[in-house]
Amino acid sequence: MPLHDRPIGERIEALLALSREHADVFCSPSAWLARERYLAKHPTRILAMKCMDGRIHLPHATRTPLGIITPFRNLGGIFHLGWPYLGEMLTDAVHAAIHGGNGVLLIISYHFSRGDLARGCAGFACDAEAALAHANEIRRQAERVFGRDHRNVYPLVCGFETDTDSLIVHGSEGVTLDIGELTLAEGAELDQRVAQVCPDMPGDIRRDLLPLLQGNLQHVDSLRGTARELDIEHREWVICIGRGFDFLHLPNTALIVGPYSPDLSEPIATAAAIIDANMKAGRIPADGFLLLASTPYEAIGVDRARAELKSRFLSEFAARVISREHPRLAASMLSRTAVVHWPSRRLELLAQE
Fold first, then answer.
1. What angle do CA 230, 231, 232 make, to 5 degrees?
2. Per CATH, is 43-223 categorized as 3.40.1350?
3. Which of 128, 131, 200, 204 could be disulfide-bonded to 124 (CB atoms 3.0-4.6 Å)?
Protein backbone atom coordinates (compact mmCIF):
# COMPACT_ATOMS: atom_id res chain seq x y z
CA MET A 1 0.00 0.00 0.00
CA PRO A 2 1.44 3.45 -0.90
CA LEU A 3 2.48 5.54 2.11
CA HIS A 4 -0.19 8.19 1.43
CA ASP A 5 -2.97 5.61 1.75
CA ARG A 6 -1.89 4.02 5.02
CA PRO A 7 -3.48 4.80 8.41
CA ILE A 8 -2.11 7.95 10.00
CA GLY A 9 -0.23 6.05 12.73
CA GLU A 10 1.67 4.02 10.13
CA ARG A 11 2.42 7.12 8.08
CA ILE A 12 3.89 8.92 11.09
CA GLU A 13 6.04 5.95 12.06
CA ALA A 14 7.32 5.62 8.49
CA LEU A 15 8.27 9.31 8.51
CA LEU A 16 10.13 8.98 11.81
CA ALA A 17 11.90 5.87 10.52
CA LEU A 18 13.02 7.89 7.50
CA SER A 19 14.50 10.54 9.80
CA ARG A 20 16.42 7.88 11.73
CA GLU A 21 17.73 6.36 8.51
CA HIS A 22 18.86 9.79 7.31
CA ALA A 23 20.75 10.44 10.56
CA ASP A 24 22.38 7.00 10.44
CA VAL A 25 23.65 7.64 6.91
CA PHE A 26 24.80 11.16 7.77
CA CYS A 27 26.75 9.91 10.82
CA SER A 28 28.38 6.95 9.08
CA PRO A 29 32.20 6.97 8.88
CA SER A 30 32.05 6.96 5.10
CA ALA A 31 29.74 9.99 4.95
CA TRP A 32 31.87 11.89 7.48
CA LEU A 33 35.05 11.20 5.54
CA ALA A 34 33.35 12.18 2.28
CA ARG A 35 32.34 15.56 3.73
CA GLU A 36 35.79 16.23 5.17
CA ARG A 37 37.52 15.29 1.93
CA TYR A 38 35.09 17.34 -0.15
CA LEU A 39 35.49 20.47 1.98
CA ALA A 40 39.28 20.15 1.91
CA LYS A 41 39.15 20.32 -1.89
CA HIS A 42 36.18 22.70 -2.25
CA PRO A 43 36.02 25.06 0.77
CA THR A 44 33.50 27.54 -0.67
CA ARG A 45 30.43 27.54 1.57
CA ILE A 46 27.26 26.73 -0.34
CA LEU A 47 23.89 28.04 0.83
CA ALA A 48 20.71 27.19 -1.07
CA MET A 49 17.36 28.96 -0.88
CA LYS A 50 14.70 26.65 -2.27
CA CYS A 51 11.09 25.53 -2.23
CA MET A 52 9.87 22.95 0.24
CA ASP A 53 8.93 20.66 -2.69
CA GLY A 54 10.42 17.23 -2.02
CA ARG A 55 11.56 16.91 -5.63
CA ILE A 56 14.17 19.66 -5.10
CA HIS A 57 16.85 17.46 -3.54
CA LEU A 58 20.05 19.27 -4.49
CA PRO A 59 22.57 16.87 -2.86
CA HIS A 60 20.98 13.97 -4.75
CA ALA A 61 20.69 15.85 -8.05
CA THR A 62 24.29 17.10 -7.88
CA ARG A 63 25.81 13.96 -6.33
CA THR A 64 27.17 16.06 -3.48
CA PRO A 65 27.87 14.56 -0.03
CA LEU A 66 25.17 15.24 2.57
CA GLY A 67 25.96 18.26 4.70
CA ILE A 68 27.82 20.30 2.06
CA ILE A 69 24.85 22.35 0.89
CA THR A 70 23.10 24.30 3.66
CA PRO A 71 19.40 24.54 2.76
CA PHE A 72 16.86 27.24 3.51
CA ARG A 73 13.42 25.82 2.67
CA ASN A 74 10.08 27.55 2.58
CA LEU A 75 6.72 27.29 0.85
CA GLY A 76 7.25 28.24 -2.79
CA GLY A 77 10.84 29.22 -2.15
CA ILE A 78 9.47 32.59 -1.10
CA PHE A 79 11.91 34.65 0.97
CA HIS A 80 12.80 38.26 1.74
CA LEU A 81 16.26 39.09 3.06
CA GLY A 82 14.71 41.89 5.09
CA TRP A 83 13.03 39.33 7.34
CA PRO A 84 14.97 39.74 10.60
CA TYR A 85 15.60 36.09 11.46
CA LEU A 86 16.42 35.05 7.89
CA GLY A 87 18.76 38.02 7.46
CA GLU A 88 20.58 37.18 10.69
CA MET A 89 20.99 33.52 9.74
CA LEU A 90 22.39 34.34 6.30
CA THR A 91 24.71 37.01 7.66
CA ASP A 92 26.01 34.68 10.38
CA ALA A 93 26.67 31.96 7.79
CA VAL A 94 28.52 34.43 5.56
CA HIS A 95 30.58 35.78 8.46
CA ALA A 96 31.59 32.25 9.50
CA ALA A 97 32.74 31.49 5.94
CA ILE A 98 34.63 34.76 5.51
CA HIS A 99 36.37 34.41 8.88
CA GLY A 100 37.53 30.99 7.71
CA GLY A 101 38.97 32.53 4.57
CA ASN A 102 36.30 31.15 2.24
CA GLY A 103 33.84 32.65 -0.20
CA VAL A 104 30.10 31.93 -0.30
CA LEU A 105 27.98 30.62 -3.16
CA LEU A 106 24.35 31.57 -2.51
CA ILE A 107 22.13 29.45 -4.78
CA ILE A 108 18.70 31.04 -5.25
CA SER A 109 16.52 28.41 -6.86
CA TYR A 110 13.12 28.15 -8.47
CA HIS A 111 11.57 25.12 -10.14
CA PHE A 112 9.30 24.26 -13.04
CA SER A 113 8.31 21.42 -15.38
CA ARG A 114 8.78 21.51 -19.13
CA GLY A 115 6.45 18.56 -19.66
CA ASP A 116 3.37 19.85 -17.85
CA LEU A 117 2.64 23.31 -16.46
CA ALA A 118 0.70 21.71 -13.58
CA ARG A 119 3.90 20.08 -12.31
CA GLY A 120 5.38 23.50 -11.59
CA CYS A 121 5.66 25.37 -8.31
CA ALA A 122 2.31 25.66 -6.55
CA GLY A 123 3.63 28.62 -4.57
CA PHE A 124 3.58 30.65 -7.79
CA ALA A 125 0.48 29.00 -9.29
CA CYS A 126 2.84 27.04 -11.60
CA ASP A 127 3.99 30.32 -13.21
CA ALA A 128 7.69 29.75 -13.95
CA GLU A 129 8.24 33.36 -15.01
CA ALA A 130 6.86 34.64 -11.71
CA ALA A 131 9.07 32.20 -9.79
CA LEU A 132 12.12 33.35 -11.78
CA ALA A 133 11.24 37.00 -11.17
CA HIS A 134 11.10 36.35 -7.43
CA ALA A 135 14.47 34.58 -7.52
CA ASN A 136 15.96 37.58 -9.33
CA GLU A 137 14.54 39.89 -6.67
CA ILE A 138 16.22 37.84 -3.94
CA ARG A 139 19.45 38.12 -5.94
CA ARG A 140 19.14 41.92 -5.96
CA GLN A 141 18.52 41.91 -2.22
CA ALA A 142 21.64 39.79 -1.69
CA GLU A 143 23.66 42.27 -3.73
CA ARG A 144 22.46 45.11 -1.52
CA VAL A 145 23.47 43.21 1.61
CA PHE A 146 26.72 41.55 0.52
CA GLY A 147 27.95 43.76 -2.32
CA ARG A 148 27.35 44.07 -6.03
CA ASP A 149 30.93 43.17 -6.95
CA HIS A 150 30.25 39.51 -6.01
CA ARG A 151 33.82 39.06 -4.83
CA ASN A 152 32.94 37.39 -1.53
CA VAL A 153 29.33 36.29 -1.85
CA TYR A 154 28.07 35.22 -5.26
CA PRO A 155 24.25 35.09 -5.55
CA LEU A 156 23.46 32.62 -8.33
CA VAL A 157 19.95 32.13 -9.66
CA CYS A 158 19.37 28.50 -10.67
CA GLY A 159 16.33 26.89 -12.20
CA PHE A 160 15.50 23.27 -11.41
CA GLU A 161 13.60 21.40 -14.12
CA THR A 162 11.82 18.68 -12.20
CA ASP A 163 11.09 16.31 -15.10
CA THR A 164 14.82 15.76 -15.70
CA ASP A 165 16.34 17.05 -12.42
CA SER A 166 18.51 19.41 -14.49
CA LEU A 167 19.90 22.74 -13.30
CA ILE A 168 19.67 25.93 -15.35
CA VAL A 169 22.28 28.53 -14.42
CA HIS A 170 21.17 32.12 -14.98
CA GLY A 171 24.04 34.47 -15.75
CA SER A 172 24.35 38.10 -16.72
CA GLU A 173 22.42 39.69 -19.59
CA GLY A 174 19.87 36.87 -19.62
CA VAL A 175 22.40 34.21 -20.67
CA THR A 176 21.70 30.70 -19.33
CA LEU A 177 23.48 27.37 -19.09
CA ASP A 178 21.06 24.42 -19.18
CA ILE A 179 22.76 21.27 -17.91
CA GLY A 180 19.95 19.18 -19.38
CA GLU A 181 20.99 20.19 -22.88
CA LEU A 182 24.59 18.98 -22.52
CA THR A 183 26.11 15.59 -23.24
CA LEU A 184 28.56 13.88 -20.94
CA ALA A 185 31.36 14.65 -23.39
CA GLU A 186 30.60 18.37 -23.06
CA GLY A 187 31.22 18.16 -19.32
CA ALA A 188 34.88 18.90 -20.00
CA GLU A 189 33.84 22.34 -21.22
CA LEU A 190 31.82 23.29 -18.14
CA ASP A 191 34.52 25.53 -16.65
CA GLN A 192 34.69 27.55 -19.86
CA ARG A 193 30.91 27.68 -20.22
CA VAL A 194 30.39 28.90 -16.63
CA ALA A 195 33.05 31.58 -17.17
CA GLN A 196 31.12 32.78 -20.23
CA VAL A 197 27.72 32.76 -18.51
CA CYS A 198 28.99 34.25 -15.22
CA PRO A 199 32.10 36.28 -16.18
CA ASP A 200 32.15 38.07 -12.81
CA MET A 201 32.25 34.88 -10.73
CA PRO A 202 35.49 34.66 -8.71
CA GLY A 203 37.75 31.80 -9.74
CA ASP A 204 37.63 30.00 -6.41
CA ILE A 205 33.84 30.06 -6.30
CA ARG A 206 33.61 28.89 -9.92
CA ARG A 207 36.03 26.06 -9.08
CA ASP A 208 33.71 24.90 -6.30
CA LEU A 209 30.53 25.31 -8.35
CA LEU A 210 31.87 22.99 -11.06
CA PRO A 211 31.53 19.73 -9.04
CA LEU A 212 27.82 20.48 -8.52
CA LEU A 213 27.26 21.04 -12.24
CA GLN A 214 29.36 18.03 -13.22
CA GLY A 215 27.47 15.88 -10.71
CA ASN A 216 24.17 17.19 -12.06
CA LEU A 217 25.22 16.37 -15.62
CA GLN A 218 26.07 12.80 -14.60
CA HIS A 219 22.77 12.51 -12.70
CA VAL A 220 20.71 13.85 -15.60
CA ASP A 221 22.50 11.57 -18.05
CA SER A 222 21.77 8.54 -15.85
CA LEU A 223 18.04 9.31 -16.02
CA ARG A 224 17.87 9.63 -19.81
CA GLY A 225 15.76 6.89 -21.34
CA THR A 226 14.39 5.70 -17.99
CA ALA A 227 10.72 5.74 -17.10
CA ARG A 228 10.05 8.13 -14.22
CA GLU A 229 6.88 8.53 -12.23
CA LEU A 230 6.08 12.22 -12.45
CA ASP A 231 3.59 12.41 -9.62
CA ILE A 232 1.66 15.66 -9.96
CA GLU A 233 -1.24 15.00 -7.60
CA HIS A 234 -1.11 16.87 -4.31
CA ARG A 235 -1.25 14.32 -1.50
CA GLU A 236 0.52 16.19 1.30
CA TRP A 237 -0.44 15.08 4.79
CA VAL A 238 2.28 16.73 6.90
CA ILE A 239 2.75 20.36 7.89
CA CYS A 240 6.30 21.06 9.07
CA ILE A 241 7.06 24.24 10.96
CA GLY A 242 10.62 25.25 11.77
CA ARG A 243 13.94 23.88 10.52
CA GLY A 244 15.85 20.60 10.44
CA PHE A 245 13.79 18.70 7.88
CA ASP A 246 16.68 17.62 5.67
CA PHE A 247 15.38 14.03 5.70
CA LEU A 248 12.10 15.06 4.06
CA HIS A 249 12.58 14.77 0.31
CA LEU A 250 9.49 12.75 -0.50
CA PRO A 251 7.38 14.30 -3.30
CA ASN A 252 3.93 15.53 -2.30
CA THR A 253 4.26 14.52 1.34
CA ALA A 254 5.05 17.57 3.45
CA LEU A 255 4.49 21.32 3.40
CA ILE A 256 7.42 23.06 5.09
CA VAL A 257 7.01 26.50 6.63
CA GLY A 258 10.40 27.90 7.58
CA PRO A 259 10.48 30.16 10.65
CA TYR A 260 11.73 33.13 8.65
CA SER A 261 8.78 35.38 7.87
CA PRO A 262 7.57 37.90 10.48
CA ASP A 263 4.04 36.67 9.71
CA LEU A 264 3.94 32.89 9.94
CA SER A 265 0.16 32.70 10.18
CA GLU A 266 -0.37 33.19 6.42
CA PRO A 267 1.82 30.31 5.17
CA ILE A 268 0.54 28.03 7.97
CA ALA A 269 -3.06 28.76 6.97
CA THR A 270 -2.17 28.16 3.32
CA ALA A 271 -0.59 24.81 4.17
CA ALA A 272 -3.65 23.83 6.22
CA ALA A 273 -5.93 24.75 3.31
CA ILE A 274 -3.96 22.38 1.05
CA ILE A 275 -4.23 19.54 3.57
CA ASP A 276 -7.96 20.21 3.95
CA ALA A 277 -8.45 20.13 0.17
CA ASN A 278 -6.51 16.86 -0.06
CA MET A 279 -8.79 15.25 2.51
CA LYS A 280 -11.99 16.53 0.93
CA ALA A 281 -10.89 15.29 -2.50
CA GLY A 282 -10.05 11.85 -1.09
CA ARG A 283 -6.39 12.13 -2.07
CA ILE A 284 -5.38 11.25 1.51
CA PRO A 285 -7.30 9.42 4.28
CA ALA A 286 -9.42 11.60 6.53
CA ASP A 287 -8.12 9.90 9.68
CA GLY A 288 -5.63 12.65 10.44
CA PHE A 289 -2.65 14.74 9.43
CA LEU A 290 0.63 15.49 11.16
CA LEU A 291 1.87 18.82 12.49
CA LEU A 292 5.62 18.46 13.06
CA ALA A 293 7.64 21.25 14.69
CA SER A 294 11.42 21.14 14.81
CA THR A 295 14.37 23.36 15.75
CA PRO A 296 18.07 22.49 15.35
CA TYR A 297 20.61 22.84 18.16
CA GLU A 298 24.38 22.47 18.24
CA ALA A 299 25.20 21.73 21.89
CA ILE A 300 23.56 20.40 25.04
CA GLY A 301 22.64 22.80 27.81
CA VAL A 302 21.31 26.25 27.03
CA ASP A 303 21.36 25.79 23.26
CA ARG A 304 19.21 22.65 23.41
CA ALA A 305 16.89 24.15 26.01
CA ARG A 306 16.29 27.17 23.82
CA ALA A 307 15.64 24.92 20.80
CA GLU A 308 13.11 22.95 22.82
CA LEU A 309 11.34 26.12 23.89
CA LYS A 310 11.28 27.41 20.33
CA SER A 311 9.87 24.16 18.94
CA ARG A 312 7.10 24.11 21.52
CA PHE A 313 6.24 27.73 20.70
CA LEU A 314 6.12 27.02 16.96
CA SER A 315 3.94 23.95 17.50
CA GLU A 316 1.50 25.81 19.72
CA PHE A 317 1.42 28.82 17.41
CA ALA A 318 0.73 26.69 14.32
CA ALA A 319 -1.96 24.71 16.16
CA ARG A 320 -3.73 27.95 17.13
CA VAL A 321 -3.66 29.24 13.55
CA ILE A 322 -5.02 25.96 12.17
CA SER A 323 -7.74 25.82 14.85
CA ARG A 324 -8.78 29.39 14.06
CA GLU A 325 -8.70 29.14 10.26
CA HIS A 326 -9.74 25.49 9.80
CA PRO A 327 -11.54 24.31 12.98
CA ARG A 328 -12.89 21.11 11.40
CA LEU A 329 -9.48 20.14 10.07
CA ALA A 330 -7.90 20.85 13.46
CA ALA A 331 -9.99 18.07 15.00
CA SER A 332 -7.95 15.53 13.00
CA MET A 333 -4.55 17.06 13.78
CA LEU A 334 -1.82 14.99 15.45
CA SER A 335 1.14 16.97 16.78
CA ARG A 336 4.77 15.97 17.28
CA THR A 337 7.36 18.38 18.63
CA ALA A 338 11.06 17.77 18.20
CA VAL A 339 14.56 19.19 18.24
CA VAL A 340 17.36 18.18 15.90
CA HIS A 341 20.93 17.61 17.04
CA TRP A 342 22.43 19.37 14.04
CA PRO A 343 25.92 17.79 14.09
CA SER A 344 24.31 14.35 13.73
CA ARG A 345 21.00 15.39 12.08
CA ARG A 346 19.26 13.27 14.73
CA LEU A 347 15.57 14.10 15.26
CA GLU A 348 14.64 13.91 18.95
CA LEU A 349 10.96 13.86 19.83
CA LEU A 350 9.96 15.85 22.92
CA ALA A 351 7.49 14.59 25.50
CA GLN A 352 4.01 16.02 25.20
CA GLU A 353 3.22 18.57 27.88
1. 110
2. no
3. 131
95 C-beta neighbours (distance < 10 Å), count? 11
Three-state DSSP at 137 gives helix
Question: Is residue 161 within 8 Å of 180, Cβ to Cβ?
Answer: yes
The CA distances from residue 326 to 15, 16, 161, 182, 323, in Å, are 24, 26, 34, 48, 5
- Cα separation of 203 and 16, whole Å? 42
**CATH number 3.40.50.300 is the correct assignment for the domain at 1-42+233-353:** no
Average pLDDT per consecutive 10 residues, the chain (353 residues; last block may be shorter): 88 96 96 96 97 87 94 90 94 95 97 88 89 97 96 97 95 92 94 96 97 97 79 80 89 88 92 92 94 97 98 98 97 97 97 82
Number of separate helices (H) and strands (E) present in the chain: 10, 11
Question: Domain boundaries in the chain?
Answer: 1-42+233-353, 43-223
Residues 35/68, Cβ–Cβ less than 8 Å: yes
3-state SS class at 46: strand
pLDDT, residue 235, reads 86
